[in-house]
Design brief:
By secondary structure, this protein is mainly α. 51% of the residues lie in helices and 0% in strands. The protein binds fe (ii) ion.
């Protein structure tokens, strides 16, 4: 793959292998079929941009970089011992929703859900919270690898410095959701 200059943009098709960015069928066709594996490799066709110009020529990005360096946080400092009552969260959400209880406002007759009572719906609500947190976990790992890619591909040193601070931020997000 040849180097690209900043004024030469590759097409969507060159970057992702298809022209339609929002082709839902194509997006849904990308599935992880090896669900027992602990790893998943995704191919990429990007050029990593080195720069030999270390001049700090972009003060706005430099300012963001300095700010990010001064406002680092540590996930270890969060109150991990806080007791979370997931059932109470389910009940609070149900109270806020438009429906008049824990069950969704739809006709469930003839479905396995028809026989569900409050106990089952609370359990469902708790499992839904767990599912959502798990999806966030994977999403944050996506952000982690994407921001690392940004470091690789942005052309200016100030942009690489600042983008690097977003990488550590996303690492913290993964760490927190994992915990
Ligand atoms: Fe994040």
């Amino acid at each position: 793959m040849g180097a690209t200059s900043s004024d030469e943009r590759r097409t969507d098709e060159e970057m992702i292998g298809r022209a339609g960015l929002n082709d839902v069928e194509a997006i849904l066709a990308i599935v992880n079929t090896d669900t027992d594996s602990r790893f998943h490799d995704v191919g990429a066709a990007v050029d990593t941009r080195f720069t030999w110009d270390y001049e700090r020529a972009r003060p706005k990005l430099g300012k963001l970089y300095e700010k990010a360096k001064l406002t680092q946080w540590n996930a270890n400092d969060l109150p991990w011992a806080t007791d979370v009552d997931q059932e109470a969260v389910v009940m609070a959400n149900a109270a806020l929703s438009a429906s008049s209880g824990l069950a969704p406002m739809m006709d469930l007759s003839g479905t396995p859900f028809a026989s569900w009572g409050d106990r089952e719906w609370v359990e469902f609500g708790i499992e839904s919270q767990n599912w959502t947190l798990s999806q966030f976990l994977h999403g944050e790992q996506g952000a982690l690898v994407c921001t690392a890619r940004i470091v690789e591909t942005v052309p200016w040193i100030d942009a690489k410095y600042y983008a690097a601070t977003q990488v550590i931020d996303e690492a913290r997000h993964v760490e927190v959701f994992s915990r």
